[in-house]
Amino acid sequence: MHDAFQVGWLMAIIIGGFAGWLAGNFMNMPHGIIMNIILGVVGAVVANAVLGVFGIVIFGGWLAYLIAGFIGACILLFVVKLIRG
Q1: How far is CA 31 from the centre of its chain?
Q2: 7-11, 35-39, 50-54, 58-62: least confidently modelled range
Q3: Nearest to 71 by CA among 33, 35, 29, 40
Q4: What's the structural domain count of the chain?
Q5: What pLDDT does residue 82 have?
Q6: Is the full-model pTM beyond 0.90?
Q7: CA 19, CA 14: separation in Å to the nearest integer?
Q8: What CA–CA distance (Å, rounded) separates 41 from 46?
Q9: Dist CA 36 CA 40 (whole Å)
């Protein structure tokens, strides 16, 4: 992961799970805990990449990871909704 997101693996799982849960509820697509963790962790990486393209850098810490995870998970869920129809 990017240096800005050095929160440790355990905290990445916990924060990622919470971010995935928030995004699932926000997008009205709730999932189980494992999918929430995956959405949050992968979502943080996706958000970091997307925001990096626009020159936006999110500084480190658990709050930045939570925000990036939420944004990225929402992006992923939006793509899933588009594919499913």
Answers
A1: 14
A2: 58-62
A3: 40
A4: 1
A5: 93
A6: no
A7: 9
A8: 9
A9: 6
